[in-house]
Specification:
Oligomer: heterodimer
Shape of chain A: globular
Helix content of chain B: 25-40%
Number of domains of chain A: 1
Distance between the termini of chain B: 122 Å
Strand order of the largest sheet of chain A: 1-2
Largest sheet of chain A: 2 strands, antiparallel
Structural class of chain B: alpha+beta
Number of domains of chain B: 3
Number of helices of chain A: 17
Helix content of chain A: 55-70%
Number of strands of chain A: 2
């Protein structure tokens, strides 16, 4: 396989990660720290709230601690824990439907008094890990186990979809099905499944809420209703476009500073970055994300352990899915679904979960 | 060590790459779109971003002040606070209007209907004033709560205040919103849309001078409409001040003598054409109209049967009656159909040959043997019937036209012309041929002929000037620059002595014991003048006494005079509608005006 296109780039990094002594991937660590710090700055710029920035900073600190803890743990010993952690997460996912936080219109949040969090975020983190652990408990993955994981995933998908949270439910679907697919689920079933989904698209359309339909329709013609459903898309496109090559400067983006972009500190933070730092800033951001995902994939590609391969592969794909879907949505390529930009958007649960994900992948690295 | 070196492991790697690729492709397209937005179309979005946050708004100029001839302030501007709303920032009009009406303790339905009337308009997204002239309590409540209400703001504006209200109303006029018709007539007004412009009087005639020029301001606002900062300001230009020729003291004192009766008075300086007093009664409070919010509030003003908004001094068309006699006499002298000394027997009735219908004089039994002087002093009707008959309409009309009858005085475009009948006029307007009887009636200023008070005043000013026609003016200074006297062509008589003769006769009206206005005789300040009694209806003697009971059918009383005769300072015409006798009600007004003004001049 000398002519494989990936081989050249991969070979460059070989000596660093091929050593058997447990070591740290500083590329991953520093790109994550860079992204989170940049995120804090952008949250401050878009919300003008020091309080919100400090709160997010605290989550960042806690997440970083958790990440390092997991990174230095022995994942072989943790595997059993990962396997069984599915059940508490599943329990919380059911609980949230009956006891949602009273401060929100949708039943996504659990209020612990001192801390509110989204069980769906927890699930999309735990599901792939426990699924991978479940699928690799035997040397050769059994079809029966695969079907079981698919079944459980569909239940989780349904539970999140009725919250309702379309964005996260799609991620849950990915998080549960990717381990099955990666571990070798037959293509014939995959195509058949895809075929079924395509057939049921009209059914899905009918079951969507009006506001969800509106978002999809708006995508095709945002200018038709500038002050209504199209507002977000129109305003964020203006923000991205008006940023130009070099941006308007930190804290100088009129679109975000004057509140023309709703949710500018969470789902639409990308438009703030684009407005204030321009095409140059976006390119740098893409580059950092590129380094991160590349290094995460390498962990998967060079690991000899199947569990490690499945987990790091799945989590890399999910991370890339988040990034690509969020950005596409902000610039009007995809409908507006609630999907934050990893490490950058405001939101405690998502940040901590993302950091813990990185921590686990860092711990898998040792098995290379 | 290549990725696919270990065949056993390659299936996972392979699958990861397959399922990673859709998202990589999506990200690639996203990057293309970003390139499209922020590189290729950046200019479009930069403009949109600016129009998002930048608002250009107009700053209203302050209207020019108006002073009287002694620099007494007549019209000023009061600053008031209004509630301005910006519809593009209002998300839910009902909730918004409810908040506003609760806060200001106003009727919700009223505000709502105002809002929707405006919201259906063409420029419904432009900011506009919803509630005018907030009181202090409302301002206090608003300034505390306005931060929470998106799309509303307190702005200050000017409201026009005529200080002496009704006394000056006919001169000053009032201001009002710019109508569609106004813009049609003067497209330049489009940029002044939010302002009020003059609708009548000096406010209208000199609107472009008083108006000033709009200022502009570019502001940065956030998505809630909250003002962030002013980017640039071009200050408005205040309108120029006007100094009127009106003497407020004189106007005030004469106005009070009207005691609410219907009528008009014009006092004009014959030498300069400057108008010193201009009264139309009854009148109105112009401030009611200046601050009008809707028509209902002033409906009664427009519906009043005494028409307080009607300017009688400039547009009231009255039969000039006996005040026309001196001009008829002059016309006859000029045409040489009679001489100054020629006597005619006035037996109280006049007959045209071949017609047994009598033309009656006002005095039963007549004035006996009268020459022109006596005919003017005693106001003999029969004398002037005969004069007019001999003169014919073809000679009479052109002569009267020289003195301004049948033409606008030139003071403003919004005054009546009166009627100067001629053969052609009657054929055109009445559709009948001219009869000799028409000429006879016109000899005493009755019949078809009508004139406005200002026309009568100007005709007498020309008389006092011995033929010099001066254009009337009401503005002395515009923004500190004096206006110039304008003289038209002079009237020259074939015998200049006739000016002196007519004046002598007019002096006799006041000074001779048999003069019709002997009651205002005062040897210190000599006045030349003429009484007039304008018949409201042509009626016979028997019906007359009966009809006198109905006040609206009583005769109009006129007097016009000028003085001091040696050097005429002022020509004054006074008309009291249904006042019966010129000498008893109108003449004292003229005497008072001339006396007051002469004392003032010294």
């Amino acid at each position: 396989m000398k002519n494989n296109p990936l081989s050249f780039s991969v070979n460059l990094k070989i000596d660093k990660i091929s050593s058997n002594t447990p070591q740290f991937d500083y590329w991953i660590l520093f790109s994550v720290i860079f992204l989170c710090s940049f995120g804090l700055a952008m949250i401050y710029s878009s919300s003008n709230s020091l309080e919100m920035t400090i709160r997010q900073g605290t989550y960042f600190f806690l997440g970083l601690l958790g990440m390092l803890l997991l990174a230095f743990s022995n994942f072989r010993k943790m595997e059993v824990f990962y396997l069984h952690s599915f059940w508490p997460a599943f329990f919380l996912l059911i609980i949230v439907l009956f006891f949602p936080s009273e401060n929100s219109k949708t039943s996504r949040w659990i209020d612990l008094g001192f801390f509110t969090f989204q069980p769906s975020e927890l699930m999309r983190f735990i599901l792939p890990i426990s699924a991978a652990s479940f699928l690799t408990k035997n040397l050769k993955t059994k079809m029966k186990d695969m079907w079981f994981v698919i079944f459980v995933t569909l239940i989780c998908f349904y539970l999140v979809a009725i919250q309702p949270d379309l964005g996260t439910s799609i991620i849950i679907l990915l998080a549960g099905l990717l381990p099955v697919i990666i571990s070798g689920f037959p293509w014939i079933y995959i195509f058949f499944g895809g075929f079924l989904v395509t057939l049921s698209l009209p059914l899905i359309w009918i079951s969507l809420y009006d506001y969800q339909k509106q978002r999809i329709l708006t995508l095709f013609n945002p200018e038709a209703d500038v002050y209504g459903a199209g507002w977000n898309i129109v305003q964020s496109k203006i923000a991205v476009g008006s940023g130009g090559l070099f941006g308007k400067g930190f804290l100088n983006g009129s679109q975000s500073q004057l509140n023309f972009i709703p949710e500018s500190h969470s789902d639409f933070i990308f438009s703030v970055i684009a407005e204030e730092f321009g095409l140059l800033g976006i390119s740098i951001l893409f580059f950092i994300y590129g380094i991160l995902i590349y290094r995460l994939l390498m962990v998967s590609f060079y690991s000899s352990n199947k569990f490690a391969k499945i987990v790091s592969g799945t989590l890399s794909i999910i991370l890339l899915a988040y990034i690509s879907i969020n950005i596409s949505m902000v610039i009007g390529l995809l409908p507006v679904v609630g999907m934050p930009l990893p490490f950058l958007s405001q939101g405690g649960t998502a940040l901590i979960v993302n950091l813990l994900t990185i921590g686990i992948i860092l711990s898998l690295r040792k098995e290379v | 060590m290549s990725i696919f070196e270990n065949k056993k492991d390659s299936i996972e790697t392979y699958r990861i790459i397959v399922f990673l690729s859709p998202f990589l492709i999506l990200l690639f397209f996203a990057f293309l779109q970003i390139l499209n937005l922020s590189y290729f179309n950046s200019d479009i979005y930069k403009t949109q971003s600016d129009s998002n946050r930048l608002y250009q708004s107009k700053i209203a100029p302050q209207r020019g002040f108006i002073f009287d001839t002694k620099n007494t302030l007549l019209v000023e501007n009061n600053i008031q606070q209004d509630l301005e709303i910006n519809p593009s920032f209002i998300e839910n009009p009902r909730v918004f209007l409810k908040q506003i009406s609760d806060l200001l303790d106003l009727n919700f339905e009223k505000i709502e209907s105002d809002f929707y009337v405006r919201a259906t308009g063409k420029s419904s997204q432009e900011p506009y004033i919803l509630i005018k002239d907030l009181n202090e309590q409302q301002i206090a409540k608003l300034s505390v709560n306005l931060k929470k209400i998106k799309g509303a703001e307190i702005v200050s504006s000017f409201s026009r205040n005529v200080i002496h209200k009704d006394i000056m109303a006919p001169v000053i006029g009032y201001v009002g919103n710019i109508s569609r018709e106004d813009i049609f007539n003067n497209p330049e007004l489009t940029k002044f849309k939010s302002l009020k412009i003059g609708k009548t009087g000096v406010e209208k005639d000199f609107d472009s001078i008083l108006r000033g020029n709009m200022g502009y301001r570019i502001q940065e606002r956030d998505s809630y409409g909250k003002l962030i900062r002013n980017i640039s300001i071009e200050p408005p230009l205040k309108g120029k001040d006007l100094k009127l020729s009106i003497d407020l003291d004189l106007q005030k004192k004469l106005f009070s003598d009207f005691k609410g009766r219907k009528g008009a008075l014009v006092a004009i300086e014959p030498r300069t054409g400057l108008i010193r007093a201009l009264i139309s009664s009854p009148t109105y409070d112009p401030n009611l109209l200046n601050s009008i919010n809707d028509y209902e509030e002033v409906k009664s003003l427009f519906a009043d049967k005494d028409s307080p908004l009607f300017n009688r001094a400039l547009s009231g068309q009255y039969p000039p009656a006996s005040t026309l006699k001196p001009f008829v006499g002059m016309a006859a002298l000029e045409a040489e159909t009679i001489s100054w000394e020629k006597r005619i027997v006035d037996s109280g009735e006049y007959y045209v040959e071949g017609d047994d219908r009598p033309y009656k004089g006002w005095k039963e039994g007549g004035h006996g043997n009268v020459d022109m002087k006596k005919a003017i002093v005693e106001s003999s009707d029969v004398y002037f019937y005969a004069l007019a008959y001999d003169l014919t309409i073809n000679n009479l009309s052109p002569f009267l036209e020289k003195f301004g009858y049948g033409k606008q005085s030139g003071l403003t475009e919004n005054e009546a012309k009166g009627i100067l009948p001629s053969r052609k006029w009657k054929l055109g307007y009445i559709g009948e041929a001219w009869f000799k009887g028409d000429t006879i009636n016109m000899g005493i200023g009755q019949g078809y002929i009508t004139a406005t008070p200002i026309q009568i005043a100007l005709a007498y000013a020309t008389l006092a000037n011995r033929g010099e026609i001066v254009k009337p003016r009401i503005i002395e200074k515009i923004g500190g620059v004096s206006t110039e006297k304008v003289s038209n062509l002079n009237i020259s008589l074939s015998d200049n002595q006739n000016w002196k003769r007519i004046e002598e006769a007019l002096l006799g009206v006041v000074e001779a014991s048999n003069g019709t206005a002997n009651n205002i005789y005062d040897r210190n300040i000599r006045i030349a003048g003429k009484t007039g009694t304008a018949q409201v209806k042509s009626i016979g003697e028997t019906e007359y006494k009966f009809l006198r009971e109905d006040e609206s059918l009583r005769d109009h009383a006129l007097f016009v005079g000028y003085g001091p005769v040696e050097d005429p300072k002022l020509v004054v015409v006074a008309i009291i509608e249904n006042g019966e006798s010129g000498s008893t009600v109108a003449a004292p007004l003229v005497r008072k005006a001339i006396n007051l003004y002469s004392k003032n001049e010294k």
